[in-house]
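dumping this here so i dont lose it
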């Protein structure tokens, strides 16, 4: 059984903290919880909403229908009326947000003490929040609790928090960024974590300065990282090539949103895969890694530092708004890689160089040798990736119906293929691409179904380039309206193609 609750209202009315309180309370009770955020590029006003899905079983996505709707602002019900189930409960009225925390707690048979504990964690406005919530709790007369949760050890975490954790645990020393949604979450997390860790965060005037400063810190030996979204990454690409030619290790966090140009600043997308793979001029090695949940965000971040340092290359962590900001229940302990710093003080150059004296050169033989050295490095990186889990397989392992996806689509795919004759292959390493292993995994497929948050099927194109396997357009499930996939809708799409 899955329950979906929508919290809607204007920016400034507190839908985020209300969602968090209910999510933490449900987690405390023993449920699995997932929630996503949908908001406009406004500080005040507009229509913002969060959707919280919870279940007695693991859950990593939302559905298209609602069991409970909380209206913090007039008009929310009208906007979402098509999503309401026939027996949906609507909570509305001119009340403070925590009044509804009380009503929901009563509806879902949560002990009021759980709410009090959450208010204590918040710290501020404890008495006011408790008073408002108690009024809601006492006023609610019905209950709809049906689930019997299982006890487990778990916590709530979003992708931004996990990337920040992975970076700090990997020995991050300096993080540069210019704020850009949806990558700003990592900047904020790392800034807060400075209080208890030795790293520092630096906000510069633009993304060009960000990448150049990171390279400057890295060539003096600091473990350096940058963060941005697509438009900011555009500005970093020239400096990215300096990393490639001068062999300076740097990690880049690229959290996608719809483009081109400003696009939709607060929506989600997977349209920057080709850019991450090909940004910059000339030929040089890079890593492009794509986690699909918070645990993988920590693990992939540590792997990015490992490869960046070991091979002195840029490593790109490819995320998006949905993964960065959606909140997951995590029960696993991430497996992190230790990475040793490899840079030694010396003279660095953006030109092709004669290595003995580190001076620029136009000598054809030296240039040829340098290029071949970089190509040899690429082979060494490919060999090293064999020690890692470059892709994962879920679902019915012997199924000939293959689902192919990457990044944040993982959650909705996992939730949608339960009880289906389907096998999901999640690609974690997009560069280098695990060509041989993937080709072997899909060689007996009856049908290959591609699922991506973009309009052109960029992973499908990469698959064709690397393996020669072509996916028909009719078997591509692509969403490109700025919204993430919803499990129940996606399940219908998959079922239609399997049949």
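and the seq i came up w/
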């Amino acid at each position: 059984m899955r329950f979906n609750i929508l919290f809607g209202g204007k920016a400034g009315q507190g839908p985020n903290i209300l969602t968090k309180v209910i999510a933490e309370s449900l987690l405390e009770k023993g449920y699995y919880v997932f929630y996503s955020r949908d908001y406009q590029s406004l500080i005040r006003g507009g229509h913002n909403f969060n959707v919280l899905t919870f279940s007695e079983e693991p859950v990593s996505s939302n559905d298209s229908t609602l069991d409970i709707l909380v209206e913090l602002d007039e008009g929310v019900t009208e906007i979402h009326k098509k999503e309401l189930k026939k027996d949906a409960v609507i909570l509305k009225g001119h009340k403070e947000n925590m009044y509804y925390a009380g009503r929901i707690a009563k509806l879902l048979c949560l002990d009021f003490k759980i709410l009090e504990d959450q208010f204590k964690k918040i710290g501020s406005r404890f008495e006011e929040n408790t008073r408002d919530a108690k009024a809601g709790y006492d006023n609610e007369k019905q209950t709809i609790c049906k689930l019997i949760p299982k006890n487990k050890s778990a916590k709530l975490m979003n992708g931004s928090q996990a990337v920040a954790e992975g970076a700090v645990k990997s020995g991050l020393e300096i993080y540069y960024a210019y704020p850009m949604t949806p990558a700003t979450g990592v900047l904020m997390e790392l800034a807060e974590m400075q209080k208890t860790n030795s790293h520092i965060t630096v906000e510069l005037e633009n993304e060009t300065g960000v990448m150049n400063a990171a390279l400057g810190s890295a060539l003096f030996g600091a473990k350096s990282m940058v963060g941005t979204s697509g438009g900011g990454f555009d500005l970093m690409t020239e400096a990215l090539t300096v990393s490639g030619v001068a062999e300076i290790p740097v990690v880049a966090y690229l959290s996608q949103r719809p483009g081109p140009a400003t696009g939709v600043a607060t929506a989600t997308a997977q349209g920057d895969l080709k850019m991450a793979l090909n940004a910059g001029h000339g030929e040089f090695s890079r890593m492009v890694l794509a986690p699909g949940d918070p645990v993988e965000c920590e693990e992939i971040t540590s792997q990015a530092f490992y490869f960046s340092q070991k091979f002195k290359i840029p490593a790109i962590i490819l995320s998006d708004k949905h993964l960065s900001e959606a909140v997951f229940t995590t029960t696993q302990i991430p497996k992190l890689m230790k990475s040793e710093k490899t840079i030694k003080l010396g003279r660095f150059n953006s030109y092709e160089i004669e290595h003995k004296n580190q001076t620029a050169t136009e000598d054809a033989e030296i240039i040829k040798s340098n290029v071949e050295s970089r190509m040899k490095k690429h082979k060494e990186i490919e060999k090293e990736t064999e020690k890692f889990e470059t892709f994962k397989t879920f679902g019915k392992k012997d199924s000939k119906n293959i689902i192919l996806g990457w990044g944040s689509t993982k959650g909705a795919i996992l939730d949608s293929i339960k009880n289906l004759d389907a096998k999901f292959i999640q690609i974690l390493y997009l560069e280098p691409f695990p060509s041989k292993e993937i080709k072997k995994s899909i060689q007996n497929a009856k049908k290959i179904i591609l699922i991506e948050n973009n309009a052109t099927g960029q992973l499908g194109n990469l698959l064709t380039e690397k393996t020669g396997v072509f996916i028909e357009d009719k078997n591509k499930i692509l969403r490109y309206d700025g919204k993430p996939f919803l499990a129940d809708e996606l399940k219908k799409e998959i079922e239609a193609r399997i049949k």
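The mean pLDDT is 95.
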